[in-house]
């Protein structure tokens, strides 16, 4: 396989994506991700299609527009990495993991051990569970090159 495509889904409040990208420098990997600007992601529906009076419909517009990007990129990915942080409940990340699993994508979950019980069904669908971005990068380096870590 020449170029690998990896979709980085989930938590947007830390530098985990950048750490993976930097640790995979030199590998033939193209990284994709959702819009990681929280305000833009939340407000894109109202910005593009007009404001709503009810929060449900405002969120609904943005969620659907963001899904156009997310579903397309998950479908194109060879590997999907889903990061769950401890600060927010990332239902969208869980949805991405389920969607990737339903498409038969190679799924790697990334989260602390404190979330193991809450994510047991998601982890059951994953091919690997990592606790650090560096572990994810090591997995990617191994599967892309076929060489032993280190």
Task: Provide key terms for this protein.
five-stranded parallel beta sheet, globular, Rossmann fold, 6 helices, 150 residues, alpha/beta
Describe what this molecule looks like in 3D.
The two termini are 22 Å apart. The chain has a domain at 4-34 and 75-145: Rossmann fold (3-Layer(aba) Sandwich), CATH 3.40.50.450. The mean pLDDT is 95. The chain has a five-stranded parallel β-sheet, sandwiched between helices. The longest helix is centred in the middle third of the chain and has 22 residues, at 55-76. The protein is globular, with a radius of gyration of 16 Å. 26% of the residues are buried. It is α/β, with parallel strands linked by helices and 150 residues long. The chain has helices spanning 16-23, 38-49, 55-76, 91-102, 120-125, 133-145; strands at 4-10, 29-32, 79-83, 106-110, 128-130. α4 links the parallel β3 (79-83) and β4. α2 crosses α3 (55-76).
């Amino acid at each position: 396989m020449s170029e690998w495509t990896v979709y980085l889904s989930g938590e947007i409040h830390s530098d985990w994506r950048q750490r993976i990208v930097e640790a995979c420098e030199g590998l033939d990997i193209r990284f994709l991700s959702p819009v990681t600007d929280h305000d833009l992601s939340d407000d894109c529906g109202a910005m593009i299609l007009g404001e709503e009076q009810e929060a449900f419909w405002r969120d609904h517009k943005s969620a659907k527009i963001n899904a156009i990007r997310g579903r397309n990129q998950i479908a194109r990915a060879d590997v999907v990495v889903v990061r769950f942080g401890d600060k927010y409940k990332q239902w969208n990340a869980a949805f991405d993991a389920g969607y990737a699993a339903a498409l038969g994508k190679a799924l790697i979950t990334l989260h602390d051990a404190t979330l193991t019980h809450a994510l047991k069904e998601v982890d059951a669908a994953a091919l690997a569970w990592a606790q650090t971005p560096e572990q994810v990068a090591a997995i990617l380096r191994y599967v892309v090159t076929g060489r032993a870590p280190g």
